[in-house]
Amino acid sequence: MRVRFTLNGKAVQVDAEPEARLSDVLMHHLEIASMRQDCSEGRCGSCLVIFEGIIVSSCMIPMFRVLGTEVVTIEGLFGSRDLRDIERGFQSTGFEPCRYCAAPKTLLTHAIISENTRPREEELEVQAQAVRCRCTSYQHFLEAIRNAAKQRRSRTRDI
Amino acid sequence: MIVSRPLRSLLRDKTLNPRTIRSPGMQFVFTIRSDRAHARIIRLEAQGLPEGIVFIDASALAEGAALRIEDDSMPILAAETVRYVGEPIGLLVGPDMDALREAVSCIRCTYEEFPALLGPTSGSDESLYQEVHRSCGDIEEAFGSAADTILTAVDTGLQEHFYADPHSAFARVANDGCIEVTTATQWLHHVQQTVSSALGQTEKRVRVHGIDAGPTLEGKVWFPSLVAAHAALAASVTGLPCVLAYSRAEDLFSSPKRPAGSVRIRTALLEDNSVAGADVQIDYDGGAYPVFSAEMLQRLLVAALGAYQIPALRVSVRCHTTNTAPAGPFSGMDALAWLGAERWIGDVAVRTGTEPVELRLRMLPKQDQTLMFNDFADAREQTAPLLKDVVERSDFRRKFAAYELQRKQRSNIVDHPGRTNGIGISLTAQGSGFSGRREDLYPSSVTLRLDQDGHAWIATSARASTSVIHGYWVARVCDVLGIDADTVHIAGFDTDTAPPSGPNMISRVTMIHTRLLEQCLQAVRKKRFQKPLPIEITRSWRRARKQVWDADACTGMPYPERSWAACVVEVEADPITFEARVTSAHIVAYTGKVIDPKSARNSLATAAVHAITWAGRESALVGPRASIARDGPVWFSSPFRNEPPVTVILVEDGAQANPLGLGELAFSCVPAAYASALSQALGVSVERLPSTAGNQYLAAGTLTRSAGDDA
């Protein structure tokens, strides 16, 4: 089937099987370099994308569901102030994700602090588990998200 | 100032994922594997393959092709005998991955099956691969005069280790006829050696572009060489670019596993409760094709009785070969021995009724003594303050006494109304770099070039999992040569540019390559205004002759450097589910010069969390017919939300100008302290790691020993 959707603000179309995984299409058809795929069961968080404004594992999204939707990968944040906030927050924490999870952890952070620049601790603790790479500790990731949120609040004068 | 790699450069780097590399005419590769644990291949053939799909077996390999590490070797594709379920026997190559999966049914393999060994055979030499024995003092006399003996037993199971990046490789034949390979690896030049062996090419005809492996718990030391050799063989046979990318399930099923092992220590106690001697037997399973076996044996030997000194000691360390996946991830290579030694001193503390910290301090080498099997004369000086510090910070003595009282008051954990607590302590070390002369086998080199335009280039195949090390190198070049950071570059991670440096392990990179760069810098600084630019200096690691470890006499220094850590872990156990939760961990470490304190503390804290999962959760299950069970991916069981707070204190020494390495310390100290804490919480001696709820239940129900522990 031919699927038209918006990827990182641009209209794209691909020919794909209706039940093909969005992650496969992003990686193999659209050559999105940041895209990773690991468990293919929606559990590891390597393939996170923002789908219709919600952060989800793209390996769980069949292509028939993508028709007419809006998808954002980390490439969609390049050059944005939002990404700079996250970068500063990570740096001030000394938080350095590995090459494999840098994209999903950054995108997850973006999704969390875009929804609420003062995320509630209980929610944050659940949300931050979405990416399960062990290159950094979970507590360290939480601290990095809090610092990124602080950067965002400071920029948007949400003090 | 040390500057880590900007996040945006990491995100924008398109070369970091072999899965997204696309090239005209590209082919996919699918690995055909043995489904027998031990068998002779009678016939292997492909019948009725669809057009466009090629089958490759061992006959396509060059004569004598093998993956070699020192004297250990394994076939790149099995030709005559298969030795574990999942062993590669052939490759299917074609333009469509789905078609390849369907074509698997066209491959027929007939076997003559042999009995399989799924673990070392206790007390038998049937599975023995290599062994070392050493002794000092009169062990026979020690046991002859003993008033009592204690037996300490510790077992660890085969374990999965998680890295988020399943193995993959991309290979193609370049225009000049050379083979080019791209893969994530910790050992760039070993990939080159293995691919050249597979294809019968000289190493110069093989170019490898490495991708930083990241923190993989050493899961990418040698296995990427095998995957790369398969991709390169496919590219060589078809003449087309080929990508071989494992799925998570395939990776889990076929990749190396942390080896299973056991420690048995028999101790002779005198009337006055002092230790007269100990007899240590350490066995580990190297799997179907043991690798790094000589190094493993040396490390286990050196760590056999930990940091402690006794009058007589006999140690026997044995590597076994069985029909399980080859041993692979080596984070904390000697963790098994440290675990055994710390459990041993815990047992001695219980039997003699001695407070565990006091016993440890008493058994450290005295001022004029050295450790039994090595020559670190300053061991006591370095370790005693660590022990005292961690005891104070964790409030160990008070908590230990309180939990001990609780344990004695309850008759049985199963009848206990609420959660029970325990606290454990350990003192362990990390030997940085390879032991003895082995560093000379994997020569480490750094090249520094200062160009006419004022730019400096650092070339080495050493890569750390954190960019802080590279950031520090750049900062040092700026400081010493007085140039700007944007004129200092780290040259490419490829075999054309980087001199060989053996396997990348964070401790080697931190300790050895940082020193080599310092030597290069001083040499460039001296020559800078005496000789015309460019100046290029290369320095390679050589140990001072007087330091070299004599494996027979057990004298000298076993490792280039050694760092120490004292650790306290506190746990809480549920008497209904038998689940245990770590509530806190304290680590006080002596690590020499600390390059970046924040990064070093984070690195050790992250490793501590890995070590807790290693000790408490991550078992790899061997399923029916000797295969690794595919269901229930164990790697998702990291504690994450339940991750305990880890306090890390780094003790610097003004006299020590160099970093000593700390990446693997947690793998020896945390599990040992965890097992002690859990023993106290459960009221039984925990003798098996990973200590899953099931194991703990079995231990509580079957062990008769109810004495507390330090446990």
Q: Can you tell me about this structure?
A:
The complex is a heterodimer of chains A (159) and B (711). In chain A, 38% of the residues lie in helices and 14% in strands. Chain A is an alpha+beta fold. Chain A has 2 domains: 75 residues, Beta-grasp domain (Ubiquitin-like (UB roll), Roll); 77 residues, Orthogonal Bundle (DNA polymerase, domain 1), CATH 1.10.150. In chain A, α2 crosses α5 and α3 packs across α5. Chain A is globular. Chain B has 3 domains: 179 residues, Aldehyde oxidase/xanthine dehydrogenase, a/b hammerhead (Aldehyde Oxidoreductase, domain 3), CATH 3.90.1170; 323 residues, Aldehyde oxidase/xanthine dehydrogenase, molybdopterin binding domain (Aldehyde Oxidoreductase, domain 4); 97 residues, Aldehyde oxidase/xanthine dehydrogenase, molybdopterin binding domain (Aldehyde Oxidoreductase, domain 4), CATH 3.30.365. In chain B, strands 3-7-1-14-11-12-13 form a 7-stranded mixed sheet, sandwiched between helices. Chain B has a 6-stranded mixed sheet with strand order 9-17-16-15-10-26. In chain B, a hairpin with a 5-residue loop joins β19 and β20. The C terminus of chain B is likely disordered. The interface between A and B is large, with 45 and 48 residues.
Task: Give the helices and strands, then pairings.
The complex is a heterodimer of chains A (159) and B (711).
Chain A: E1 2-7, E2 10-15, H1 22-29, E3 48-51, E4 54-57, E5 70-72, H2 81-93, H3 102-115, H4 121-127, H5 138-155
Parallel strand pairs in A: 1-5
Antiparallel strand pairs in A: 1-2, 3-4, 3-5
Helix pairs in contact in A: 2-5, 3-5
Chain B: H1 7-12, E1 27-33, E2 39-46, E3 54-57, E4 67-69, E5 72-74, E6 81-82, E7 88-94, H2 97-103, E8 107-113, E9 128-136, H3 139-144, E10 148-156, E11 168-173, E12 179-185, H4 188-199, E13 206-212, H5 223-238, E14 242-245, H6 248-254, E15 261-269, E16 275-285, H7 293-302, E17 312-320, H8 335-352, H9 356-363, H10 379-394, H11 396-409, E18 420-432, H12 438-441, E19 445-450, E20 456-459, H13 467-481, E21 488-490, H14 506-527, E22 535-540, E23 561-573, E24 580-590, H15 597-616, E25 646-651, H16 665-682, E26 688-689, H17 693-702
Parallel strand pairs in B: 1-14, 10-26, 12-13, 16-17, 20-21, 24-25
Antiparallel strand pairs in B: 1-7, 2-6, 2-8, 3-7, 4-5, 9-17, 10-15, 11-12, 11-14, 15-16, 18-23, 19-20, 19-22, 23-24
Helix pairs in contact in B: 4-5, 8-16, 13-14, 15-16
